[in-house]
Amino acid sequence: MNKLRTVIVDDHPIVIEGLKTLLSNEDNLEIVGTFSNGAELLSYFNSNPVDLVLLDVTLPDIGGMELCKLVKEESPDTIILIVSNHTERSIIMQTIQNGANGYLLKNSSLDELRQCIAEAVKGNICYSKEVMEIISRPTKNELRGIPQLTRREKQILYMLAQGKTSQNIAQELFLSSLTVDTHRRNLMQKFEAKNVAELIAAGHQQQLL
Amino acid sequence: MNKLRTVIVDDHPIVIEGLKTLLSNEDNLEIVGTFSNGAELLSYFNSNPVDLVLLDVTLPDIGGMELCKLVKEESPDTIILIVSNHTERSIIMQTIQNGANGYLLKNSSLDELRQCIAEAVKGNICYSKEVMEIISRPTKNELRGIPQLTRREKQILYMLAQGKTSQNIAQELFLSSLTVDTHRRNLMQKFEAKNVAELIAAGHQQQLL
DNA sequence: TGAAAAATACCTAAAAACCAGTAGAAAAAA
DNA sequence: TTTTTTCTACTGGTTTTTAGGTATTTTTCA
Questions:
Q1: Quick one: pLDDT band at residue B143, thresholds 50, 70, 90?
Q2: Residue A181 CB closer than 7 angstroms to strand C?
Q3: Which end of chain B has less neighbouring CB within 10 Å, N or C?
């Protein structure tokens, strides 16, 4: 196993130095670059392989959310760990939805950081303790964000995820395929999805599948 | 919160009695039926609401796997907990893929059972301790089952999950849409998926998304 | 350096999905 | 018993996907 080629992206020099120092003695990773904004990261990223990105959410130019997406599109295997001060549940969830592999607060200990990296390498999503607490208490507002599906819609979502076509489903449920299409459309609207692919992805992210 | 309308499906009368007795003092659930095969369950299920199914994998008629699917298609909210003796990883994973919400071995304690039900009600998938151990040590054979994707394929899978069309992706990556189509086809072949919906679902189940 | 794997690109045609709107019947909630 | 929601179904059209192929050019790596 090679050392993880690691970069740090944060607009606070102190944080960069802090992380750098903390991680300087880790023998499973190597810090190959530090950047104070998104553009710098992207330009480096275009010509160099990166295994691990420690990323702040608030950056002067491109937001951390957007960066997550861009990085993951370019290189889905690159691990992104968010290191941020934001404690809002919605922000945490959003970063994960955009492809981040974990979320830490800036006051995390080296141990937590180490552990998160290890988990992320294994392919798991990992939160520091405090973050874990935040996300494990759901809010009403949060719930409002999850589309409320009718029984039929859930059923059809479920069958879609199994690769069934509208006609298949219509036959199995003794419906017109036009009806199934309508449900499907309503589902896509509720999830703000452009097509089935996104619908299924959203369903999974919402833990409905 | 009403009591969970619970049914037990197992072809061993002893197991049925055992579970019944174990759960008789639980005040959050009520056993409304016990069946010794799949057909019985289905016929009951067609005319009665069921919140929780305790299901054996090996049944004389319809397999537990198939039952999972059928039940979930009819009523995605119904919780299915597998109570089985099978310790093969592949079987465990398959039941979960077919929609089961948890997997217990028959030697589980009442406590574990209770806990599993509670977790499943929360929407989590839950395994008893021993099962947890089994599934947390991946085998080589297991790994072979996970499609090996090329970088490009992963990238395109990722973008598909965001609802992008082949053309969208082609534009973003400066490719011909025909190329993207080919990748997409190869992806579907590797995942044995019939269409994007199933592809994305499989990607999620394989933790690639 | 040579073979294998990956990435790229093309053709055709049918099938399926998607868009935008409407609307009646049934069931659930007020 | 209204009102609202859910489920149902339709028209008519456009776009995208999918299924059969084939085939060249890069990379990668032994």
A1: very low
A2: yes
A3: N
Which of B76, B154, B197 shows the shortest C-beta gap to A197? B197
Q: Is the pLDDT of residue B38 over 60?
A: yes
* Beta-sheet strands, E only, within chain B: 4-9, 29-35, 52-55, 79-84, 102-105, 126-127
What CATH number belongs to A4-139? 3.40.50.2300
Top residue of A158, A171, A180 to mutate, by most chain B CBs within 10 Å, is: A158
Contact B187, B156 (CB under 8 A): yes
Residues with Cβ within 8 Å of A200's Cβ and at least 6 positions away in sequence, in order, are A157, A160, A161, A209, B161, B196, B197, B200, B201, B204
How does residue B1 score in pLDDT terms, banded at 50, 70 and 90?
low
Q: Which CATH number fits domain B4-140: 3.40.50.2300, 1.10.3110.10, 2.40.37.10, 3.40.50.10240?
A: 3.40.50.2300
Tell me how many degrees the CA angle A23-A110-A22 measures, rounded to the nearest 5: 30
Strand C positions with any atom < 7 Å from protein CB? 5-11, 15-23
CATH 1.10.10.10 domain range(s) in chain A: 146-205
Highest mean pLDDT among A138-152, A174-188, B19-33: A174-188
Kindly state the helix (H) or strand (E) to which residue A5 belongs, with its residue range.
strand A4-9
**What band does A144 get if pLDDT is binned at 50, 70 and 90?**
very low
- Look up residue A84 and give its two tokens: 């941020």
Q: For the structural domain made of A146-205, what CATH number should be given?
A: 1.10.10.10
**Interchain proximity B197–A160, CB inside 8 Å:** yes
Summary mean pLDDT of chain B:
83
Residues 6+ apart with CB under 8 A from B200: A161, A196, A197, A200, A201, A204, B157, B160, B161, B209
The structure tokens listed for B1 are 């919160």
Residues 132-171 of chain A: which lie with beta carbon within 7 Å of strand C? 165-167
- Does A183 contact strand C, using a CB cutoff of 7 Å? no
**Of A155, A164, A194, Cβ closest to residue B76:** A155
